[in-house]
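Objective 1b. Sequence-to-structure analysis of Protoporphyrinogen oxidase.
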Amino acid sequence: MKILIAYATSEGQTRKISRHISDRLADAGHAVEMLRLADASGLKIGRFDRVILAASIHVGHYQRELTEFVADHADALNEKPTLFVSVSLAAAGHDAEDWRGLDEILADFTEATNWTAGRTEQVAGAYLPSHYDLFRRFVMRRILAAKDPSADLAADKEYTDWGVLDAVVDGWLAE
Ligand SMILES: Cc1cc2nc3c(=O)[nH]c(=O)nc-3n(C[C@H](O)[C@H](O)[C@H](O)COP(=O)(O)O)c2cc1C
């Protein structure tokens, strides 16, 4: 199968997740094209059998290039089996309020684009102080200290569960 993986990332974790999915699909014999949404203008979605979109949440929103891409290609996307990978730190825990927030962010995105993916998966991202500027480091330290009191606030920490991600992708492919 020909599969498109198009992603947006701010600190790199969604690229890493997209690369992981791409490698898995390629190993299974699929023809995979992976590119940044920012570089996707003019892309013909009709060439692909399936499409995976991935983006991360910052201050309650996905990257603008995701919203623009989906709004531009909603009709073509609606004709394909699609998987939307939503990456955040809220998905790393079990806090009910955090998960309600994820539902609201997704609902806002759906309303803005008029598109609902065939399947949406909330995937835990990473805390990456080595990638943050001073202000972001300050804000994110406070958020992580509340969320994961045992975490070393000076160190990068990945919350992505690669085994769960593999199962999601395999399940979606089998649908
Ligand atoms: C400035 C900033 C704001 C963030 N805002 C949110 C947020 O509102 N909700 C959330 O769940 N995660 C939030 N995160 C966590 C990111 O979604 C998480 O680090 C993710 O792995 C980033 O993926 P990326 O590296 O592909 O951009 C934020 C991270 C940063 C640095």
